[in-house]
Structure to design on (321 residues):
């Protein structure tokens, strides 16, 4: 039984390295920190790793992310890699090379299109978030939540459920939230830090994006784009574009929203495409998979070298003219 195998990995005491997906969100970092703190508190040899040099989202800095290494540990060959919230090995690093450097890979995720790239795979699409899976595994392994872990896991829960508004908000998610509040998490404080402490540069970037938004496919598709110059003009970092595509989805009649963004890193694909849809509507993950990406039915993305007109034409075709 896969779940039992993962529990045994958490119990066995061997050296591990934990990682989350590139451009990590609240669930990725919350799961990483929550599991890492709890394993380390047992005396385990734990390394937290995140590929690349891209800064972490500013609003998540309160999770104390300074302990996360940005390079693969030199002794990777003797460690088990526990990959969290990664739909594929290419979500750990875009070359897909990191996973193969470790003794084995434990893949813990909730994306329904996960490629099952691990030596051991635990993928639960019914879970609201990866943090929910992590909390359950720690319970089964008999490992208590360490100081700081309830807050980290709550961040994963509240962000991936859209503040308990998305279709993935289940009774199980609410039960976990209640438990974490009993552990001392202050939801008003978390809300203020995550959603009411935004830099002015981020709001200016949002204004630019909304100012050039357009609808197509009879109003069912909303699209906007951000160039590198927009980030430079506003002083915003890459993570500041989070939330733009959600604002587009809120437009009346829109079934698919898309943000086309030029990343600061010029060594990779020319654009990143973030997709959002309404509950029970367009399957964003199916669209993203057509271009080598993935995600959830309601939220997905991919990277591409296509031009903006080419991307828009593809999305119009996908949503139906």
């Amino acid at each position: 039984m896969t779940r039992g195998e993962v529990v045994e990995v958490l119990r066995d005491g061997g050296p591990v390295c934990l990682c989350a997906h590139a451009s990590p969100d609240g669930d990725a970092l919350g799961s990483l920190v929550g599991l890492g703190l709890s394993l380390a508190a047992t005396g385990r040899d734990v390394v937290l790793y995140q590929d690349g040099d891209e800064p972490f989202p500013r609003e998540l800095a309160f999770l104390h992310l300074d302990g996360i290494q940005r390079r693969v540990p030199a002794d990777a060959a003797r460690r088990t890699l526990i990959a969290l919230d990664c739909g594929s090995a290419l979500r750990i690093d875009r070359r897909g090379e990191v996973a193969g450097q470790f003794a084995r890979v434990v893949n813990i995720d909730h994306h329904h299109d996960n490629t099952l790239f691990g030596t051991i795979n635990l993928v639960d699409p019914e879970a609201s978030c990866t943090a929910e899976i992590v909390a359950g595994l720690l319970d089964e392994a008999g490992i208590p939540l360490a100081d700081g872990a309830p807050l980290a896991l709550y961040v994963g829960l509240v962000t991936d459920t859209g503040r308990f508004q998305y279709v993935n908000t289940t009774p199980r998610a609410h039960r976990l939230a209640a438990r974490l509040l009993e552990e001392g998490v202050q939801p008003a404080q978390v809300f203020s830090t995550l959603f009411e402490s935004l830099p002015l540069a981020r709001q200016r970037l949002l204004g630019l994006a909304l100012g050039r938004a357009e609808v197509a496919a009879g109003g069912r598709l909303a699209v906007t784009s951000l160039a590198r110059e927009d980030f430079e003009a506003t002083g915003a970092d890459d993570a500041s574009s989070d939330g733009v595509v959600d604002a587009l989805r809120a437009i009346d009649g829109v079934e698919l929203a898309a943000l086309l963004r030029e990343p600061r890193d010029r060594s990779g694909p020319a654009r990143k495409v973030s997709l959002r849809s309404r509950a029970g509507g367009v399957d964003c993950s199916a669209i993203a998979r057509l271009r080598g990406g993935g995600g959830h039915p309601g939220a997905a993305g991919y990277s591409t070298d296509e031009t903006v007109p080419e991307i828009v034409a593809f999305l119009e075709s996908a949503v139906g003219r």
In short: The two ends are 46 Å apart (CA to CA).
